[in-house]
Structures are given as C-alpha cells and as structure tokens.
Amino acid sequence: MAETGWIELLRRVAALGLAVLGLAGGLSVFSPITGLVCLAAAVGVYVGLPYQAPPTGAVQPDWQPSILMSDMIGFAVGVPFFSLPLMAAAYMPTPAAFVSMLFFIPASLCFPIFYLSARQATSYARFFGNGFEVTEFGLTMRLRYTDLARAEIRIWQMKRGLSLLSPFLDKRHGVTLVAGSAPSKTLRLTSKTGAVFVVSTETIPDLERIFVDMDRAGIELPKGLSDLGRRRIRRVREKRWGKVEDAVPAPTPGLDRLRKPR
Q: In what order do the strands lie in the sheet with 184-191?
C-alpha cells in the first residue's frame, strides 16, 4: 500500500476515533462543549486531509454504493457501537460494563467497510498506445500489451449483496475494477505471469482505440469480440498504421535445388 492508500485509511480511522471520543466522552467524562469540539475535529480530519484525484484519462467504475455512502455506513456502524461500551464503563456496574464490550464485535465491521472505501478512492486504470497501468491503493502496475498472454471480453455479474467483495474475487495478483451487481461487460486481461486485470468496459470511453493498439502490438484480439468488430478494428489499424504484410516463409533446406528431368 502506497502513501495515498494510507492517507485514505487514516482519513477514515482517525475521524472514527475522534467521533467516538466526542460522543462517548461528551456524554460521560467530558463536557458537552469538549465533545462537540471532538466531533468537529472528526469532520475536519475527514474533509481536510489531502486527497489525490485520479490523473487525467484515468477510468474508474461507477462505484455502488458510492464512496461517500460507504463511509457513512462505516461511521453509522462504528461510532455508536464503539461508544456504547465506553459509556457503559462510566455509568454501569463492572459486570454489565464487561458484557457491553460485546458491542465491539459489530463495531469492528466498520474497518472492512473503510478498507473497501479507501480502495475505491485510490483505484483506477489508464490505457496508453503501447500498454496500460492499473493503480490500487496508490500502487501502480504497468504492463505492455506485448506482456499479455490473452485478452477476453466477458459478462461480469455478481449476486446481489456480494458486489462489494468483487476486489477479492478472481484476483490472482491482479486488480478488479468492476462495481455493482448488475450484468457488466468487462475487459479481462491476463499477463504472461498469470496476473488478471478486469476492467468494466462501460468506464472506457474509447475501447476501439485500445483494441487497435493491441492489434498493432500483435496481440490476438479479445475473445468475445464479434467478427464484424474484428474486421472494423483491422481496417482502422491499417488506415492509421498501414497494412502489415505477412512474413515470407524461409525456404526449406534441400528444396531449393530441383532435379532436372532426364
């Protein structure tokens, strides 16, 4: 995880800690004003920490739920459930306060939510004339088209409720940039080392240009592309870069000398 990813995680975890301190402390050991100051500091940390927007030309899925909505769900889970045991420790007898620590179990669910939200904020893909790069948590992986073993077009569909887990499914040391549970056409790129990169085609504004660049690099066009689409891409490539002549096969030794008839 790069610095960008750590900042996005810190933005959420620090805001959570200040919000819990403000709510639990303001209702127990702190004054209400101090509690409000802590809550205001939580908002300030969440909004004020530097945010690095994706570069020009980067593509991201239309995350569902959105990044802001995921964060709100995480805070709605973490803040009350972390605050309840702290307030119970201040007002309730020790046995009851000890039992209230069970609320820490549902409260911990906010951390995977924040992890996914930070991952969405720092993940994108960019395509160039000779290859592509995929960034996840601020870490960038660059590949040339000549490093690909195959390219495919597949329909991606997740069961409802499992779409948030898509980054962890079929990953194979690659990156999955698909969102939502509705059927989505995706570009699946497999490198020669076995890494798999899946990108939703709805997010790519000029998919034909990518196929033309792949064809120019000598990569077989994606499986799942229609014959009409293949011919169109081949025509565009030949119009831009000229027709690629087939290599003339070398003569087979021993066949270049023909016997003269007697």
A: 148-156, 184-191, 196-200, 175-177
Q: What is the pTM of this model?
A: 0.79
* Residue in 166, 183, 182, 159 with CA at minimum distance from that of residue 120: 166
Task: Give the pLDDT confidence of 97-107 residue by residue, as tens digits.
Answer: 788 889 899 99
- Taking CA atoms, 260 is separated from 159, 201, 257, in Å, by 73, 62, 9
Identify the bridge partners of residue 168 per DSSP, sorted by sequence position: none
Q: Which two tokens stand for residue 165?
A: 């887990």
Digit-coded pLDDT (tens) for 4-16:
889 999 999 999 9
Contacts of 88 (CB under 8 A, 6+ apart): 96, 97, 100
255 Cβ contact list (under 8 Å, min separation 6): none
Per-residue pLDDT reduced to its tens digit, 219-237: 888 877 777 878 888 888 8
